[in-house]
């Protein structure tokens, strides 16, 4: 009987120990679960803060900078590079954000990078490079001087008209891209993608409101704002500013003889010549019908005549025969040039446009197909 009691006592003791161990394990698991929930809650709060931050961004560069900062802080990255490829931009490929900041020291170096060396840009899919697991890494790592021995994860996305972006992230050696880390990175990138797409739509809408639908040049409604800005800058910095009024000679005859489609083709051809001739800092407006205004910042009268001569030559070399049948004469341009000048009392935007218009009137009522410079009326 005594033995049975002893055995029962040992069993009770063992059961007590087992319950204590089990309870301890449950407590540890509960603490881990609570810690995980707390960490996830903090991650969601940071992601919400990030989303609110970039919602207030007005330019893509601000979104890229914020994305770079938050990803590095959230994932404790060893290195990060954000690359944008826009086939219509110059350069087409640009390093828009990076950490450490030394990576972004030479933005122009990316102009020679071939986007085909990046699997993300080429295939449009996330790419995971495990540490030491791939003998061939992304060619951009070499271009950006990033270490190929660190585990990397890249996320690409497209927005706007053909703009492709890749976010290239590196962890420190010994760490791995777990599913949780990849999901966090993707969440930040998705939030940035949405804001960048919205900014692109807003920019496109603004561009369409300020440009002429036929030629793609600025419209007359945008002339007041943009030309007034150039006049103010010229006055503030003491720079030269030239304004040119351009008219297509005998344009009405083209419309009457060949139809409005032919006239539209001539106008588009002129706009194309403007794009290939003028600098990016120059402004070209469709003033109305077949009249155009061109603003040339930091340009005096002599330089303006040289630029306009190149434009006349480019337009004179256009072959219209494939689009307009039986065109007897090559379309030509008449131009009037005026420079902002205190000596001639041509200082305001209105005075400059009036002076350029007077010079154009002299060209149209003379030989045409020429460039005339504004000359103030001589005192009697």
Order of helices and strands: HHEEHEHEEHHEHHEEHEHE
- Low-pLDDT segments: 104-112
The overall pLDDT, averaged over residues, is 83
Strand content: 15-25%
The CATH architecture of the largest domain can be given as: 2-Layer Sandwich
Number of strands: 10
Q: Kindly provide the name of the CATH class of the largest domain.
A: Alpha Beta
The name of the CATH topology of the largest domain is Beta-Lactamase
What gyration radius follows from the Cα positions, in whole Å? Answer: 33 Å
- SS class: alpha+beta
Number of domains: 2
**Helix tally?**
10
Question: Could you give the distance between the termini?
Answer: 143 Å
| CATH homologous superfamily title of the largest domain | GAF domain
Describe the structure in your own words:
Strand 1 (79-85) and strand 2 form a beta hairpin. The protein is elongated and about 135 Å long. It has ten helices and ten strands. Mean pLDDT is 83; it is low at 104-112. 31% of the residues are buried. The chain is of the alpha+beta class and 380 residues long. The longest helix has 54 residues, at 2-55. Helix 8 packs across helix 9. The termini are far apart. It folds into two domains: 53-207, Beta-Lactamase, CATH 3.30.450.40; 220-373, Alpha-Beta Plaits. It is 49% helix and 17% strand. A five-stranded antiparallel sheet has the order 2-1-5-4-3. It has helices spanning 2-55, 60-75, 119-123, 139-143, 179-210, 220-237, 251-258, 260-277, 301-316, 349-364, and strands at 79-85, 93-99, 127-129, 152-159, 163-170, 241-248, 283-288, 291-297, 333-339, 371-373.
